[in-house]
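Quick log. Single chain, no ligands specified.
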Amino acid sequence: MIVTRLTPDAQGDVDWPTLSADRRSVLTVGVFDGMHRGHRTVVRRVVELARRENALSVIVMFDPRPGLVHRYAASHGGAEPEASTPDAELLTSVPQRLKVMEDLGVDHVLVVRYTLAFASRSYRFFLGRMVGRLGMRHLVLGADAAMGAGRAGTVEAIAALADATRVFELDVVDDRGPGCVRVPSDAVPARDGGDGEPQDPTQGMTRAELRSWSKRHQARLVRVWSSSNVRYLLSQGRVREATSILGAVHGIEAEVVHGEQRGRTLGFPTANLAPDIEGYLPADGVYAGWLVDEGPVSTSEGGPTEEPDESVKRVVLGTESSVAQGVDASDVPVPVGSRDASRRWPSAISIGTKPTYSSLTGLHDRVVEAYAITDEWLHLYGHRVRVEFVAYLHPQIRYASSEELRRALDEYVRRTRGIVGADASPRPTSSR
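-> predicted structure:
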């Protein structure tokens, strides 16, 4: 797969490359944040049509998210965000999306920097460039897609243009999923309450109760298969529901750095993630999931970093293989991280401010720690890892003592091994 990054000029025009002198293209356009099942449906259709027509499969992907650009401009006097401006609402980074697109068989991805000038161009201008410069023969869009200035390029408008010009064909894919759901506008990214996966607060409500709830929380109607819904579910710790929409477990990526090393004193040494995490952080709490080693991070000099001081040996604490919290291991989706099974481990994951010790340390930063359930010696400092979330176990709470916390961690490990299934069985001890 060939990836090309493009930046519009001051007028919003893009110097589109010539992809092929003799092959047409099948193309789609969008942000594809999260690469959920709706996105995958569209991309698969692009690849299918391209192979049938002996054409190139092409994705035009916008970065940063249009929502970030327009909201930033509205609050900063029309200025645009810098490339380094964080996007707290971003579900998946560009590299994460590209991995999925490559797996789906896409030939070319054109990553276009989304600017206000680019957004001001009409959909007719944009589609003319797609036909003239990229050789677009088929355009594949989701059922409620819209593009161009003022989002005037609706599916209906583009269909009329395709019929009138006959220079390209429009293929509309139903990417909406099973209806719509209401997402509260005042949702707080937090998770309080009891044990186990949080439930839909509207479950079992009558129509009158749902109307009252929607009004009280200023809920808006969104598609079930949408990035907005996935973001809301993850913010509430409802990772199993998010997984069903994504079609894969949600994951974040970052470099492993030194932490307080308190976990090793409890018998649970963890991989501590650097603050610059790629991907959307779910609600604070304890999760069952996976830790995936993506390999050493390259230094500015071009070589890999490798921490000579090894991580402490991981000890398997608990041997339960039964399924916990009603999660059938056969229903757990295949993870999408490293394909090397020897470099992925079942993991108990913590997101939060370490409430048991924060009053003592004075540290209240939100951190991510992953305890790999294995008896291997792991060398992960300076490595990039992927942390994948399969199920929510418990909210972050303050324990009365280190011993009480250790017993709770032991239980989280047992439940994690049950949830991820047979793949969580211990591997033979490797040499130091």
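Residues 180-243 form one domain.
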